[in-house]
Amino acid sequence: MALVPLADLLQKADQEEYALGAFNCNNMEIVQSIVNAAEAESSPVIIQASQGAIKYAGLNYIIALVRQAAEGTAVPVVLHLDHGTSFEQVMQCIRFGFTSVMFDGSSMPLEENIAQTRKVVEIARVFGVSVEAELGRIGGTEDDISVSDKDALFTDPAEAERFVAETDVDALAIAIGTAHGQYKGEPELDFDRLEEVNRRISCPVVLHGSSGVPDESIKKAIGLGVRKINIDTNIREAFVGAMRKVLNEKPDEIDPRKVLGPARQETTEVIREKIRLFGSSKKI
Ligand code: G3H
Ligand code: 13P
Ligand code: ZN
Fold first, then answer.
1. 53 in contact with ligand 1, CB cutoff 6 A
2. Residue 223 lies in a domain
3. Whole domain around residue 26: which residue ranges?
4. This model's pTM is above 0.85
5. For ligand 2, which residues put their CB under 6 angstroms from it?
């Protein structure tokens, strides 16, 4: 089927209290893993492209791959821009067929983040494209966040309330203790903050940096209103881990299909497990 906007899927997820997996893609095999997993679970799915993915594969290849994947399946697929960095890039993605965009103004002063996000929402609405924004700093696992930094970096619930009221975004990514990349220890999530943000805003919450977050914390976060969960690092681990295994076992292998095929298979299994954990199986 044709690509669908995120907002339509979020509405059903919110009503039925589950989360949608948003999986990062970088090449054809990962796009296929995501769609194969969604099909096997009869689940709607979000395929997203990061700045790194766009740089690596090129925007046109990503669009062509994901559109092809969506048209060949009966499960609803969203093509989403992950961490859109500029107004121009977001507009380009809307023009070229993305059905959802993230405008990440989290490094801007609040007023500017509100103003630019609002502008993106006004235009995206005309094209039926959904918008995710970010408030608070999610960062990477390499950023050492001290306890005293937390109040400055984590999302302020009062600011979140104002931000959503003034921008009318479809989803809001918040900082509650997750980080992008591989965690050194077990991440501790600020569930009280999540609960308060969710109570004060009218749109669903997005959790970034979700690879490595314990299953129980993921379930608790879904119970407190998280409706989109971003996974990239677990995909990288599965994909490259399977490639490494083949090459270790058969160092003379020269057929890329014999290396990438098992990587695609392993990645599909990891994504299926995530979909089951998020509760979106059989929700098409
Ligand atoms: O936003 C988090 C993703 O893991 C992005 O990483 O730009 O290296 O693809 P990337
Ligand atoms: P992880 O790489 O930690 O799974 O985070 C993915 C993400 O948040 C993409 O926006
Ligand atoms: Zn992210």
1. yes
2. yes
3. 6-278
4. yes
5. 24, 82-83, 180-181, 208-211, 230-233
Say how many Å lie between the CA of residue 225 and the centre of ligand 1: 24
Q: What is the mean pLDDT of the chain?
A: 96
Q: Report the catalytic residues.
A: 82
Give the nearest ligand 2 atom to 236 CA.
2
Q: So what's the pLDDT on residue 145?
A: 62
Q: Is 50 in the pocket of ligand 1 (CB under 6 A)?
A: yes
**pLDDT higher than 70, residue 248:** yes
Q: What one-character-per-residue DSSP string does the chain give?
A: -----HHHHHHHHHHHT--EEEEE--SHHHHHHHHHHHHHHT--EEEEE-HHHHHHH-HHHHHHHHHHHHHT-SS-EEEEEEEE--HHHHHHHHHTT-SEEEE--TTS-HHHHHHHHHHHHHHHHHTT-EEEEEES---BTTS---HHHHHHHSPPHHHHHHHHHHH--SEEEE-SS--BS--SS-----HHHHHHHHHH-SS-EEE-S-TT--HHHHHHHHHTTEEEEEE-HHHHHHHHHHHHHHHHH-TT---HHHHHHHHHHHHHHHHHHHHHHHT-TT--
For residue 239, what is the domain's CATH number? Answer: 3.20.20.70
Mean pLDDT of 236-260: 98
CB of 83 closer than 6 angstroms to any ligand 1 atom: yes
For residue 87, the model assigns a pLDDT of 97
Residue 283 resides in a domain: no
pLDDT band at 151 (very low <50, low <70, confident <90, very high): confident
**For the CA of 25, the nearest ligand:** 1
Q: How far is the CA of 247 from the centre of ligand 3 (A)?
A: 30
284 inside domain: no
pLDDT value, residue 147: 61
Number of domains the chain is built from: 1
For ligand 1, say whether the CB of 82 is within 6 Å of any of its atoms: yes
pLDDT tens by residue, 13-48 = 999 999 999 999 999 999 999 999 999 999 999 999
